[in-house]
Design a protein that fits this description.
The chain is of the alpha+beta class. It is built from 19 helices and 50 strands. The strands form 14 sheets. Strands 11-28-27-26-12-13 form a six-stranded mixed β-sheet, with helices on both faces. Strand 26, helix 15 and strand 27 form a beta-alpha-beta unit. Helix 4 runs parallel beside helix 5 and helix 9 packs across helix 10. The longest helix has 21 residues. The termini are far apart.
Length: about 1000
């Protein structure tokens, strides 16, 4: 307890005062320079006021990361597969308790002050494209499932004390961030419907409920404008938060403020860019690591130049201080979480929770009756565990350090032994090779006296393990090499090769290589990260990664000294069942900064599966991966297939429990698994409606649909009914259904409720998740469930009114086991006035508010706010279609246009804008050149003929470099003098 007399304490130290008064008192005591200094991630102490240093951000996505040993839970996509809000809340609670323990009992590894209690989690970016490198970090492709799990995670992180936060959760990454390649300069094009129905929908609930205390902005641009200066920060995020009584604390992503100038070139200098970000709503700048001088200098420059003022600075600091007060920094004696001890980290309860989460994340994709592998009296069942992930657990970039590791082989070995069965073989199924230098005939080897030392070519080691390496194929020609002598991976440091790494890792992975085949049958060894080739010093035999061209590189001949496929097939044939464990290393291919080019299994893994299945008909495929694969062959040929995300320390025990039937498979897919032959849209096409992304709009049959997952029992659905067959627009309805366990085992069903509009006037989703509920039933048990279908489950964003609306008409309410397995449907009629045609005369219509489009890109009309459209691939034309438009009395049309490049600069087609009404020409414009794309000219033209009465379909066609921001019809000709 503080011994300072109450009358000597400044008001900000008085815990009895309201939060707002305490914050304002402290703000008033800080000088302007002190406030500016607080805007950097590493906010310095203010000793004269007794204020400690503060840092934003501790990574806590599925465990406390980067700080040492901590309980490691399944990846976020694995938590998404549980479809379980209560479990997700429990995991977040455990993570936040451990974060508190680190804060109280361990020193920060970098910078002054304690480990931050602000948690940079969860990630609620939607898994639109399964090739996204950071697929593992999101929960689902569906905004409702993502939002509910994200809200649960935030509530668990924040705790339930009405005044104090256990930790302060930050939603990542606002907004529309789903590609890694060139992420700092790519723009995600979001038409209003996609923006409001899809991307914003994942963020809104956690913010509106007050569970999220802040948001991190994304690296990318949206509609040509960097997310760090987006008007949506204020117009959406903070508007949602306002009713909670707390403002969101918005942080930048690492180095993103500097990106605004280079590489984005959106601003000419850093003072201008930092000022714009601060005015847009950024409260903390994560830039230049712990060195705050650069950021503070830029902001001070912006102040001197009048680009920002004291109020801009104060507003941001106010938000930071409010969070710090709520975290108990200024009254630790009243902090209910201050007593959390170090024994909370890796506690028995957290280990048990990690096992539960890993178990519930397992999804059974296919089963012909092979699973579960139940014991047979008097028979000793023999299982071979095969594959590159059979006896390995991987961490990802945002994992904690696992306190222990239970692999698939470990879990099966222990569980089978406990019932009298056995694992007869653990085989990775990879080739062991030797590489012999063509120049000397010597073999690439580790030093006999120092196996972790620099590698060289030595003739004497060619027959021993010093010169043998296991080759792992991760797809796209990317390999890792593991020394047979040391069991460690070959890495490159200072251009030298050493077999010294326990596992591949680090931000810049140095353990990946390619063996590039040459015309003469030899191969070149190329280091992926540096792009350079291995060369051999003729005198010493030392191997260095120093050749910048193939001509300077050493050529190698590969000799297979152990055939991985043959070894795996023999092990499978000698067993009663083969369990093949395939998947990815989360730090290789498909990771932060790198998307996957496709969804194919690595070729060597595919070949391994086929070889094992040919040798052993009872083959089970267990995929452990951060993302979906195209498993077409396995679905057709393998008796049973499971998937789990990388599940953390308890992965193997969880997988064994499901394989052997000790636990039921309860996971359901949180995203679509597409077929291998299904051409996916381009990664940068964020228009899920036009492109056909996700289960909502993808029309080709998926291999495994969203929500899919089998059980060891069966469930039936009976008597689906609605509380009303007819409701007024905007009213909710309750759906009631009886779920029956029709099998012979207890099991858990995830009841999924979907809606769809029948004969909609807009491009409606094929299905849309409206609600879900998990229910556990004993054999023969039946339970009646009632689930409210809220009005917004039927709503769409109406571009004509700029608001959500529920159209009158017919809707289906469907109960399903997944989008490919609908169990029952009930028809619902919504009453209300028919939507009026869109009024166009005397009203400016934004070009971005189209109903349909082809070949269109969205861009910023102004650096601060507003959107425009233009052709995405000039000289190809683009079209924007506006349906149900009322043109009564229209005689002229005025357009806001821009043409920022010389005519024909992007192609031979001249820049032109044409308007058609119901297919007939109505007006045309040739936009004049403008200074830049943010400079607009208004042109007016008479209509070629008065439109007839009634609603019309307008089609704008843009060619060349023409850009369109908006248009207005008028009743009388209005031409400039």
């Amino acid at each position: 307890m503080s011994t300072t007399p109450v009358h000597d304490r400044p008001p900000f130290r008085d815990a009895e005062l309201p939060l707002r008064e305490r914050v304002e008192d402290l703000l008033g005591r800080l000088t302007l320079d002190e406030r500016v200094a607080l805007l950097h991630q590493y906010a310095p102490a203010v000793p004269r006021l007794g204020i400690a240093a503060f840092r934003t951000g501790t990574e806590a996505l599925h465990g406390v990361a980067w700080l040492g040993i901590a309980t490691t839970f399944p990846q976020a996509v694995g938590l998404g597969a549980t479809w379980d809000e209560e479990l997700t809340h429990a995991v977040a609670t455990a993570v936040s308790v451990e974060q508190r323990a680190f804060h109280h009992h361990r020193a920060a590894p970098i910078g002054a002050g304690p480990i931050s209690l602000q948690a940079w989690a969860p990630v609620v970016n939607l898994l639109r494209d399964p090739r996204w490198g950071r697929n593992e970090e999101g929960y689902a492709e569906d905004p409702l499932l993502t939002a509910r799990l994200g809200d649960a995670y935030c509530r668990g992180m924040a705790g339930d004390d009405p005044e104090h936060l256990r930790t302060a959760p930050i939603l990542k990454h606002f907004l529309a961030y789903n590609n890694e390649d060139d992420r700092c300069v790519t723009s995600s094009g979001l038409r209003p419907r996609v923006l409001h129905e899809y991307d914003l929908a994942a963020f809104r609930p956690a913010v509106a409920s007050g569970a999220a205390t802040g948001a991190m902005l994304a690296y990318n641009l949206v509609n040509g404008r960097p997310c760090h200066v987006s008007p949506l920060i204020e117009s959406e995020l903070r508007r949602w938060a306002a009713p909670t009584g707390h403002e969101l604390f918005v942080v930048s992503d690492a180095e993103a403020p500097s990106n605004l100038v280079d590489p984005e070139h959106y601003f000419t200098d850093h003072a201008e860019s930092h000022a714009a970000a601060l005015r847009a709503g950024v409260d903390s700048f994560t830039d230049h690591g712990e060195d705050s001088a650069v950021t503070v200098g830029r902001l001070q420059d912006a102040l001197r130049r009048g680009l920002i003022d004291e109020d801009d600075v104060t507003r941001a600091v106010r938000r930071q201080l409010a969070i710090r007060f709520r975290l108990g920094e200024f009254d630790p004696e009243r902090d209910p979480y201050a007593g959390i001890g170090w024994d909370a980290v890796d506690s028995p309860a957290h280990r048990e929770l990690a096992l539960r989460a890993a178990t519930e994340a397992v999804v059974l994709l296919k089963n012909d009756g092979t699973l579960p592998l139940e014991p047979v009296a008097g028979v000793r069942h023999k299982v071979a565990v095969i594959g590159p992930l059979a006896d390995t657990l991987f961490e990802d970039w945002y994992s904690g350090t696992m306190p222990y590791r239970i692999t698939a082989a470990d879990g099966l070995r222990a569980a089978l032994a406990a019932r009298g069965d056995e694992v007869t073989a653990v085989v990775e199924g990879v080739d062991r090779i030797a590489l012999r230098a063509v120049s000397s005939g010597g073999a690439l080897s580790v030093p006999a006296d120092d196996p972790a030392g620099p590698m060289a070519v030595t003739p004497d080691a060619e027959t021993g393990d010093d010169a043998r390496f296991d080759v792992f194929d991760w797809g796209g020609g990317v390999l890792t090499l593991r020394s047979a002598r040391t069991g460690r991976y070959v890495t490159c440091g200072d251009n030298e090769l050493t077999a010294s790494q326990v596992l591949p890792g680090g931000w810049d992975v140095q353990e990946t290589f390619r063996l590039e085949e040459q015309a003469d049958g030899t191969e070149l060894l190329r280091h992926v990260h540096s792009g350079r080739y291995a060369a051999v010093d003729g005198a010493s035999g030392r191997v260095t990664v120093s050749a910048d061209t193939p001509a300077k590189a050493e050529s190698w001949r590969r000799t297979v000294v152990r055939d991985g496929l043959a070894e795996a097939a023999a092990a499978a044939a000698a067993a009663d069942t083969a369990v093949v464990v395939l998947g990815n290393d989360p730090l290789i291919n498909g990771r932060e900064t790198q998307d996957r080019p496709d969804t194919a299994l690595p070729p060597a893994q595919d070949a391994l599966l086929r070889a094992v299945a040919a040798a052993q008909p009872r083959t089970v495929l267990a995929v452990t991966s951060s993302y979906p694969y195209a498993l077409d062959w396995a679905q057709a040929q393998v008796p049973a297939v499971l998937w789990t995300a990388h599940g953390g320390q308890e992965s193997g025990r969880a997988l064994a429990a499901v394989l052997l039937g000790a636990s039921e498979p309860t996971g359901r897919l949180p995203q679509t698994w597409y077929r291998g032959g299904d051409p996916l849209p381009p990664p940068l096409d964020y228009d899920i409606i036009t492109a056909g992304w996700t289960y909502q709009y993808h029309r080709a049959p998926a291999l495994y649909g969203f929500g899919h997952g089998l059980s060891y029992t069966t469930f039936g659905y009976e008597d689906l009914r609605l509380s009303a067959a007819r409701i007024a627009s905007g009213e909710p309805v309750t759906a009631t259904v009886t779920v029956v366990n029709t099998g012979e085992r207890a099991g858990t069903e995830t009841v999924q409720l979907y809606t769809r509009a029948v004969a909609a006037r807009y491009d409606a989703p094929l299905l849309r998740l409206a609600a879900f509920r998990k229910v556990r039933l004993a054999p023969g048990e039946r339970r009646e469930l009632s689930v409210e279908v809220p009005a917004d489950a039927l709503a769409h964003w109406d571009v004509a009114t700029g608001a959500f609306t529920v159209d009158p008409g017919a809707y289906d309410v469907l109960v399903a086991r997944g989008v490919q397995d609908v169990a029952a449907t009930a028809r619902l009629e919504v009453t209300g006035p028919t939507p009026a045609p869109r009024k166009a005369v005397g009203v400016r219509l934004a070009a971005v508010d189209f109903d349909a489009c082809t070949g269109l890109r969205l861009l910023d009309a102004d650096p601060v706010t507003g959107d425009a459209v233009g052709p995405s691939t000039p000289p190809e034309p683009a079209t924007a279609v506006f349906r149900n438009v009322d043109l009564t009395g229209a005689r002229t049309v005025a357009v806001q246009v821009s043409r920022p490049t010389a005519d024909g600069a992007s192609g031979a087609v001249p820049s032109r804008i044409e308007l058609r009404c119901d297919g007939a020409p109505l007006a045309a414009f040739t936009p004049p050149p403008t200074a830049d794309r943010h400079t607009w000219t208004e042109l007016t033209a008479p209509l070629s003929a008065p439109p007839p009465p009634g609603p019309h379909t307008l089609t704008w066609t843009l060619t060349g470099d023409a850009l369109l921001a908006g248009f207005t019809f008028a009743e009388f000709p209005e031409f400039p003098e």
